[in-house]
Amino acid sequence: MARGEITSKKPKGNLDEAVGAIPPGAYSIKAFCIAHNISEAFFFKLKEEGRGPREMAVGRRTLISIEAAADWRHEREADAATEAA
Prior knowledge:
- The protein is α+β, with helices and mostly antiparallel strands.
- It has a domain at 26-84: Multidrug-efflux Transporter Regulator, Chain: A, Domain 2 (Orthogonal Bundle), CATH 1.10.1660.
- 54% of the residues lie in helices and 13% in strands.
């Protein structure tokens, strides 16, 4: 059977469903903010204060790796623990 890009027929199934099933390797800033329930304005405020996650440049895009996001969450937890003490 010929591939869809050769026959110009769309493959069966929803591409969004297939992509959604694959865990991301990195977040865009918007996706990071959605995943962590913060506004983009607050993200940039944290970044300005030096409390944002590590970022990487990929071409013209700025991405946040899954590992950097996890490290950032651990740092925020540690900050909250020291503030409570």
